[in-house]
Design brief:
Shape: globular
CATH architecture: Beta Barrel
Strand content: 25-35%
Helix content: 10-25%
CATH class: Mainly Beta
Strand order of the largest sheet: 5-6-3-2-1-4-7
Order of helices and strands: HHEEEEEEE
CATH topology: OB fold (Dihydrolipoamide Acetyltransferase, E2P)
Number of strands: 7
Number of helices: 2
Radius of gyration: 20 Å
């Protein structure tokens, strides 16, 4: 048996090509590595501002402090037993650990203004089933 080595790698001239967008980098990291570098989403300037305003990340939940920040990883529209819509959010804190959050008070699934891979702040409660907030208590900040 004869083995022939064939080189399939040809350098590509990338001069003049744009860099990947932030969202493309994040999606590739999720797909290839399984998690993301939080610093791609939360800039040091934003982090300093959150610290200055004493807004902790969701992974450092404190019931005394009502507002926390987190990153939305995934958004699913669900329905209650009474057929009322709500959002089930997959969220990340500063440590990258995934948690779930229920977002109540959704009037219509077409009114969803939240986006994945965005930093949000919200008035958060922690109950028996996990974190929860209401649609009027959550804001994207980046």
């Amino acid at each position: 048996m004869l083995w022939v080595r064939i080189s399939c790698f040809h350098p590509i001239d990338t001069r003049g090509m744009d860099d990947w967008t932030r969202s493309e980098k994040i999606e590739m990291l999720k797909e290839l590595v399984g998690h993301i570098d939080i610093s791609l989403i939360v800039s040091s300037k934003l982090r300093q501002e959150l610290d200055k305003r004493e807004i902790p990340p969701i992974n450092k939940y404190n019931s005394v402090l009502p507002i926390h920040w987190f990153i939305i990883d995934d958004i699913m529209v669900k329905r209650t037993r009474k057929n009322k819509p709500y959002l089930l959010l997959s969220i990340l804190g500063e440590n990258g650990e995934k948690k779930r959050m229920f977002c109540w008070g959704l009037k219509d699934s077409h009114q969803i203004k939240l986006r994945a891979n965005r930093v949000c702040i919200a008035k958060v409660e922690n109950g028996d089933f996990g974190f929860s907030t209401r649609t009027w208590d959550i804001r994207m900040i980046d």
